[in-house]
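RECORD TYPE: inverse folding
INPUT: structure tokens
STRUCTURE:
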């Protein structure tokens, strides 16, 4: 089902899929500019940490056996009573070859200017097919994959025949999603507020351990500042706008890519969220062992960090992410600012103070 914020269409998917993969994505960017309404789209980030995925099956002679690996495996399991061993027995001598896909995910953004969340983000897979092994082990001396492992294309630790790795064809693009981030953020904030309101109304029984007396209270009454809680994604955008980063004209959509999620649990409760990922390509070292530094030296390190990133107050947002800058370092800067030991721009101090009063992160 198409989501409220999803701008993906068959036409857009076809344009992406039929554009050749080129260095720096020049032809894809040109296609966005000339064949869609997203003129000015730019590349921002690549994620290449994904494992290989089974795609299709070839015969030992290279002929086509199955165009969809997963559908073929499901059909074989159904035909053999769900037994992975029986599927193996039926095909172990066929020498079938597994075609796998090596995926890489690229992020592109069409910035509409104005509010920091006013952009469209495109996530596009680049996929290269290759062959390097057979589907089934030749024998069961080292075990066999079970049904779930077969469905995933896993060997389950069994030894399978390897072949010299060769690529098949050229890499291709596939549109994963096209998200109107402003719509996504508005919906995520509303869903969070509705869930927060309902949770806050839940009634609990509180027992005084000394007197044994009980009273009925709401979650809201037991949680100081409960109604001030906001969706963390909204805070991330608002903090950027209010801080030196946004005031300097930096656009959040070129400095961060957003891995979005939309999940409904078995009870029907919906959760929309994202995890931001930085787009810098320079090697940036984490700030380590700063507990040995006085606060002036720590703040100096954070200032140098900003210079390497190229954005003022970048250290704060990287601290929200939690990998290169730690929350304890942020807390030390806040304490030092309030003690008058260092001077932050007033707008940055307010952002940091709000975080200190109600911490969040990703």
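DESIGNED SEQUENCE:
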């Amino acid at each position: 089902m198409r989501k409220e914020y999803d701008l993906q269409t068959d036409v857009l998917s076809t344009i992406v899929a039929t554009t050749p993969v080129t260095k720096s994505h020049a032809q894809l960017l040109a296609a966005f500019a000339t064949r869609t309404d997203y003129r000015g789209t730019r590349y921002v980030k690549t994620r290449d940490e994904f494992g290989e995925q089974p795609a299709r099956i070839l015969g030992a002679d290279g002929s086509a056996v199955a165009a969809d690996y997963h559908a073929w495996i499901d059909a074989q399991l159904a035909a053999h009573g769900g037994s992975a061993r029986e599927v193996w027995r039926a095909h172990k001598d066929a020498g079938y070859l597994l075609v796998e896909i090596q995926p890489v995910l690229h992020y592109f953004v069409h910035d509409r200017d104005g509010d920091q969340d006013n952009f469209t983000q495109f996530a596009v897979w680049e996929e290269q097919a290759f062959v390097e092994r057979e589907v089934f082990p030749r024998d069961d001396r080292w075990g066999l994959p079970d049904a779930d492992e077969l469905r995933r294309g896993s060997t389950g630790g069994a030894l399978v025949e390897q072949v010299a790795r060769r690529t098949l064809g050229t890499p291709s693009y596939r549109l994963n999603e096209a998200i109107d981030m402003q719509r996504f953020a508005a919906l995520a904030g509303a869903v969070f507020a509705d869930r927060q309101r309902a949770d806050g109304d839940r009634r609990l029984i509180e027992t005084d351990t000394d007197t044994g007396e009980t009273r009925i209270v709401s979650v809201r009454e037991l949680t100081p500042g409960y109604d001030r809680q906001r969706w963390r994604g909204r805070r991330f955008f608002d903090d950027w706008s209010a801080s030196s980063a946004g005031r300097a004209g930096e656009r959040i959509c070129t400095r961060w890519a957003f891995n979005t999620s939309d999940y409904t649990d078995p009870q029907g409760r919906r959760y929309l969220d994202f995890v931001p990922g930085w787009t810098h390509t320079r090697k940036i070292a984490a700030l380590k062992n700063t507990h040995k530094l006085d606060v002036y030296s720590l703040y100096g390190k954070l200032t140098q960090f900003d210079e390497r990133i190229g954005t003022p107050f970048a250290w704060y947002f990287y601290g929200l992410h939690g990998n290169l800058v730690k929350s304890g370092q942020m807390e030390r800067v806040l304490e030092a600012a309030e003690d008058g030991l260092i001077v932050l721009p007033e707008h940055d101090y307010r952002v940091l103070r709000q975080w200190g009063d109600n911490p969040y992160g990703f």
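NOTES: The two ends are 28 Å apart (CA to CA).
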